Amino acid sequence: MRLQGVNDRTAADELRGTLFVIDSADVEPSDDPDEFYDHELEGTAVRTVDGTEVGVIAEVLHPPGGELLSVKAPDGREILIPFVTAIVPDVDVAGGSVTVDPPDGLLDPE
Question: What is the DSSP string of 41-107?
């Protein structure tokens, strides 16, 4: 990323700790069919491959081990789903749906 007027390391260091915010409406969709912005996924319905409703994506988390979809289930609990192709085989941003093929136990209440 480059910022206009920030031309050297000293100027960049002065911005350390600054939170930069942009309007998600100003972001063009990715050209890569396997890349998604968080705002494109949040609010999307999640269903299993057999059509069972799982919930709605509340947030995309970015811990060190890889992305997780934080899904709010109809019963109010949070389900964390690893955002990997083996578990999330289909993402249809335009259609507003995400399909998951969860391993046994992933969706079970604790």
Answer: HTT-EEEETT--EEEEEEEEE--TT--EEEEE-TTS-EEEEE-STTT--EEETTTTEEEE-PPTTTT
8 DSSP 8-state letter: S
Render the burial of 4-17: b for 16+ CB within 10 Å, e for the rest.
Answer: eeeeeeeeeeeeee
Angle formed at CA 61 by CA 55 and CA 63, multiple of 5 degrees: 140
pLDDT digits (tens, 9 = 90+) for 55-77: 999 999 999 999 999 999 999 99
How far is residue 95's CA from residue 109's CA, in Å, rounded to a whole number? 28
Q: Give 78's contacts (C-beta < 8 A, 6+ positions apart).
A: 58, 70, 71, 72
User: Rounded to two decimals, what is the model's pTM?
Assistant: 0.79
Residue 26: count other Cβ atoms within 10 Å of its Cβ. 6
